[in-house]
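Researcher: Structure for this, please.
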Amino acid sequence: MTLYLACWTRPSWGTLNYMVPFIVSAREQHGVTSAEDYLAKHAAFLDKKAKTGARFAVHDSAVEVTAWVGFNEWLVQCECGAGNATDPAWGLACCYGCGAIHRLVTFPDDPAAIERALVARVKPSDRHWLPTESVDDLLAQNADASPGVLVGVSNVLE
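Model: Predicted structure, token format:
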């Protein structure tokens, strides 16, 4: 997982801003700019992994997976149990563990609205969304949050 160092700024009007004003996707996680680049990077990684004797099977997964946001990142859960980065614009996720390629990724109808509600949370570690939550649920969580309270984490841990 890519580690982002905290970079806080406090403008003169007192608002605290975090320097990650977006939800991380496969683009940032794997340093790719397109679905094709993602597939190529996945293939190259698995080629290298095969040379170490690691066991896996590159395959198109027939399992439909649903995207969610955990700790500021768009993810799906592979059938092997691994969390895989995805991107709402691509509808694709690649597993670097078992070799699965997920092409049946379901996203919310309006991922941008989910992202806007989550980015309002100062700390990326407080940015979580499950498919059972609506945008209104996220906005209500934001409104109920007090300084220092983790918003959304309890939904992921339940």
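Researcher: Any notable elements?
Model: The mean pLDDT is 85. Residues 35-50 form the longest helix (16 residues).
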